[in-house]
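note to self — DONT lose this again. spent like an hour looking for the file last time. sequence + predicted structure for the chain T wanted, 236 res
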Amino acid sequence: MELTAETILARLQELRSDEERKKYHRYFDFEDDAADTFIGVRMGQVFALAKQGLLTPPAEIEKLMESDIHEARAAAMSIMAKQYQAKKTTPERKQELFELYLRRHDRINNWDLVDLAAYYVIGPHLLDRPRDILYRLARSENLWERRTATLATFAFIRRGELDDTFAIAELLLDDPEDLVLKAVGWMLRATDTNRPALNAFLDRHAARMPRIMLRNALEHYAPEERAHYMAMGKGK
């Protein structure tokens, strides 16, 4: 179905709940301001609404991204991801969605918004294309762009291509933001399908890796192996 931004915003207002809004404090460190307002719509409801709006055009998705309401932007990212993955979506539309994500990254300003679409739009779009954009994002001053850079590589990992994940992880070893370090750790953990390659990366870099990154990377390791690498890591 093709929904307009106006229709989606109206439905979100109908679903709002003060009780649900309070629950967001458990998951997000936020202060209400003009740029990021939570109105209290459960994410399950947001995703169901996004599924109904699968055919919503990029121009309407962008209007949602411009909203001050966090749940509206979450709906936008969910629509973008679902639409990109749909079998009937044309290559031209996929290109539009990819470009929209990057062009309006200023509106992707929290971890959940990155996670909703970076896996499903940015990474898949670059599977058979140059990946220079990820390295530019990894060097960005914007922490959400750096998070996008590493999470997008999951699409490559699923195809057995690990070089970009490791290269971007190396760029982000000294990142000051935990939400970036965690994301890097998750992607390193995903490369455990090739344990020798992950071991080689850890042997080279574990001594520099912040503990939060290292812990996430080692989740599938046996206790004694985990202790070995943790002993090498930084104290942070």
